[in-house]
Amino acid sequence: MIETTAIAQTHPNLFRIDKKLNDLVQKIELLNYINPINIEQEKRNFFASKYNVNPNFKYRKIDFDPHKLQQQLFLQDIGSIHNEEARKFYEDVIYDYSGLIQCIESIGKGKKFYYNSLKSFGTPTQKDVEMLSLFFILKMKNTVMNWFRYLMHMKLLNILMSLQRNTTSISI
User: Are 86 and 148 in a shared domain?
Assistant: First the structure.
């Protein structure tokens, strides 16, 4: 097994870039931003309206500058990585995180989030939809208190199934 210090001496740019990328992406966690901050209030409103009012979700504010962060990602000198496979890997990492930043930036913005999600995560397969459907049916079955969540998940399933059906007609 080759020691880390030997690799660091042989490929100093790789280690410098890796550390910088790691430092940059610390605040990028999609789940921190996608969960509504007012879900309980909207659940009460939904039940009080006898299921006639659509929820108006509010989301956590982004605590980083998306444009600046993407700029910093793309400023990394990956061209200085001599190993082609490693350089391609870091290029892919940068593009993946850039897409994730775009997803976070577009949460709550309807179709913009929808298309950014497709770009980052792809279209769900029929198996994905079936597994998610089974999960939600088992989890939500016969639970009145979870009806609101069940309806929201069914809405998500409908979107996923629509994505699955329209894969060929959607161009990103």
Answer: no
